[in-house]
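Hey, can you fold this one?
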Amino acid sequence: MASLTKPGGTIPGAAPRLPGAKEVQKKLGHRIRALRGQKGWSQEQLAGESGLGRSSMGAIERGEASIRLANLLRISRTLDIALWELVQGIDDQPKTGLKICG
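Sure. Predicted structure:
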């Protein structure tokens, strides 16, 4: 098992940080902010309609917070777009060794 360092020690069993994850968080936050703006909504309106706190929504839009899948789904439904449309193109890193069978 991997462990991450934190101020004052490590977090046993934590997954290693994913390279580029912070950049993806920021891009996703910018996308959410842009879509909110297109609707003419305030951050507080989107947060309320999505069932999230305004400060949480602010952190998400600034790319400072990780976001759970359930909350992404809430946001996409509130914005009246499909989840895939919300995240499409956010992670533009080349995929290596991934094969989808079916």
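The chain has five helices and two strands. Let me know if you want another pass with a different chain boundary.
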